[in-house]
Amino acid sequence: MGKRAAAIxxxxxxxxxxxxxxxxxxxxxFARLGAELIDDSGLDRADVDGFCVVGAREAPALAxxxxxxxxxxxxxxxxxxxxxxATPAGMVWRAAAAIEVGICQAVLVMCPxxxxxxxxxxxxPQTSSRPVYMGGDAWGSPQAQFEVPxxxxxxxxxxxxxxxxxxxxxxLDEATLAKIAVEQRYNALAxxxxxxxxxxxxxxxxxxxxxxxxxxxxxEIVMPCFGGAAVLVTSADLARRARHRPAMISGFGEEMTHxxxxxxxxLLDSPVRGAAARAFAMAGTTPAAMDSAQIYDxxxxxxxxxxxxxxxxxxxxxxxFVREHDFRYDGDFPVNTNGGQLGFGQAGISGGMTHVIEAxxxxxxxxxxxxxxxxxxxxxxxxxxxxxxxxxxxxxGA
Amino acid sequence: xxxxxRDGRSIPxxxxxxxxxxxxxxxxxxxxxxxxxxxxxxxxxxxxxxxxRADWSWAEASGQGKIHAFTIDRIGHDPTQKELAPFxxxxxxxxxxxxxxxxxxxxxxxxxxAGMPVKAVFxxxxxxxxxxxxxILRFRPAA
Lengths: 398, 143
Description:
The complex is a heterodimer of chains A (398) and B (143).
Chain A: E1 6-17, H1 26-41, E2 50-53, H2 63-70, E3 77-80, H3 87-100, E4 106-113, H4 142-146, H5 156-170, H6 174-188, H7 203-208, E5 211-213, E6 216-217, E7 226-235, H8 236-240, E8 247-255, H9 272-283, E9 292-295, H10 300-310, H11 318-324, H12 340-344, H13 353-364, E10 377-384, E11 389-397
Parallel strand pairs in A: 2-3, 2-4, 9-10
Antiparallel strand pairs in A: 1-7, 1-8, 4-7, 5-6, 8-11, 10-11
Chain B: E1 3-4, E2 10-11, H1 19-26, E3 31-35, E4 39-41, E5 57-60, E6 64-73, E7 87-94, E8 99-104, E9 117-125, E10 134-141
Parallel strand pairs in B: 8-10
Antiparallel strand pairs in B: 1-2, 3-4, 3-5, 6-7, 6-9, 7-8, 9-10
């Protein structure tokens, strides 16, 4: 079914951590991730002829050529992607599309998120942008003038507004949202790499955790941490020579309408709808056929809304869907089987890659204790900003 | 870097495009741009977001609106507003159509409701870097 031109042939994911002792420049992190992708796939370094990165802090301009130089590549596809949490999924389809039109055959898709060597950073006055503003403190930006003074900063208040409006519109209760966090935590308990491994939670504990922005509570919000992740996207031919079962990229879609929640055309109708519809159509399949769903989960409400807009249930029926299904890896509708970012940790830009990699692991039968009984078809959604950047992927075992 | 008021909170830094809005706001007037084809739009920009043309004009808005969605920020996600938390952040649908984001003032946080009618107010803050007092848009419950 669908596109069969490109596949994910190898993965690498670093165990996330709250503290990261081994500082590394981004360019060196790319080399390490590249080596790990070669080892995991069993393919040859000489096959690599493209890459996707967010950028490199030590190369704020002309980053792609800096990457080609640092990795000793003669590279044909040199891409920089800027889609917030949807960046990794967005990189995967761009690589697949470039491979399909014959530009290249093997693309390193790399998202490190670790500290870089210190330049006595603590002693310097703060003159650069703060990460919490996500660039919205740049002079002349609408955010700096009309959003930051209102306090609409970071992502949590925006998702909280969506959650509260959803509850008022459709009557969702807080325990149903909490169930998402609890079931994902159950999945994390079967993943020794997860940041919350060994720490079960209950619905009551989620409900009793501190309110951060009504109605979202601490245990419904991702834990920021350090880490890194990468995948090797190759032509179908190359992937068939790789060590593990190829995860074919059989469908993809991307859509966006806004940067800020204020400009979102409808708070309860996200661009997931268009992105997922095109991904399913391209793959020639449907939500009901999915064995696994790996959904970007910066918050519990993100999972519920994304499942609705992707077509797993109707808008307004997400609460009933969550109550009627078991999202655990051994349940009837496995979601975020490695714990998702809520259970695994959100390591910066690599957070969105954990969903891609977990889908590949399930398809390849490499998910260990949390392995699903059957996983041939997986839906992956990448979400950036304020339900703004949306990328959907359909991955299929060859 | 955001611009800061003397009390440490972030305040807007007008640009050549947005200066007329902030100048009127300092006098308590809410100016909206109106496109002859596509109607009112907000935030201010050099061209209409629908037709991309520049033949819009400024018109004074009523300042009346209704709360569409809101949250109570319990921790102050803006690092410059941590000590001001908790406060209500709301998306307000203006009578003229466009949507704005602002804090709700002169109202207990727990009493705020979606659909509540509100009225724009502009509070002035002294910039830490000198210059004219700078207005921040807020809404209070409509009388």
